[in-house]
Amino acid sequence: MNLQQIEATKVILSSPQKIVIVPHKNPDGDAMGSTLGLYHYLKNRGQEATIISPNDYPKFLKWMPGHEHVVNFEKDTLHAKQLISEATIIFTLDFNHLGRIDQMKPFLEEAKATFIMIDHHQAPGDYADLMYSDVSMSSTCEMVYNFIEFLGHKDQINSDIANCLYTGIMTDTGSFKFLSTTSRTHRIAADLIDKGANNTQIHNKVFDTNTPSRLHLLGCALKNMVILEEYHTAYITLSQEELDGNHYKKGDTEGFVNYGLTLDGICLAVIFIENKEDGIVKISFRSEGDFSVNEFAKKHFQGGGHTNAAGGKSDVSLEDTAAYFVSLLDNYKEQLKA
């Protein structure tokens, strides 16, 4: 965020505002951690702020301070639409084009508010009036920490803010192992612990609250894993029948895709998850090294994200989606050398 934009933000926030904070659809730890962290900061500064999530989010994130105040657009549409229409500022966090908020999109497009984007994904859209976009950042939560520091209020980060921001940094860095994790990321994490983030408790609440059905679903996913040694690739499929048979709940498949990368010699891991209600196959891509799953997802699967972590979707059957994916790999054989 350049100096001009920082000063403009300071001026806007120097007077009372009606603020709406929006994460992307199917929000993850970074999306909810960043929105809740910013929410507490703004509330402590005397602002009227509300988080509106496009839809529900996983149970393992519903311990964070302030989560009970999040408005679910799907469940409370009329109230959410009113808040959006009355907002003077709309923050969009952890996404950079309005297609990521699904049915909320037309209402944000009609909004008269000033838009402020904070995000670390590639190829940002041009809808925001003020934009803090940096693809080198480990997480949007790290950026919210920087944002608060830019405004001169780092000393106002309390334990509620710290717990929320630490959660998003931890989850989006793969517990600090991804390439985007820098020495500054660690210094910020340390400062958040000093300011009250309970790192041990956060890890336990996010990663150690499994249900038997989720572990059974994981077993099913690993049993379905296909390893393509020639392409240094592993992929998993999960059908709607398998999800239903294992009592799938939102968030249950979080992290499943990463298991492929734990295999020696694998540099591309993918999971295909059938969603018959939406008529799509949801896809998550992970890679190691220089292979850009962002470019791969953008070119072939209506998606995108980061160089080593991206998402996409397919409108054909689960079987045809997997077959199409495999058919593409020969074109990338040289790039997929582990």
From TrEMBL:
Domain DHHA1 residue range list: 250-316
Residue ranges annotated for the DDH domain, each copy included: 18-169
UniProt GO MF annotations: 3'(2'),5'-bisphosphate nucleotidase activity
Enzyme class label: hydrolase
Domain of life: Bacteria
Hydrolase keyword on record: yes
Cited SUPFAM superfamilies: DHH phosphoesterases
Entry EC number(s): 3.1.3.7
Entries under Pfam families matching the protein: DHH, DHHA1
Entry keywords, A to Z: Hydrolase
Name recorded for this polypeptide: Bifunctional oligoribonuclease/PAP phosphatase NrnA
Organism name: Sediminicola arcticus
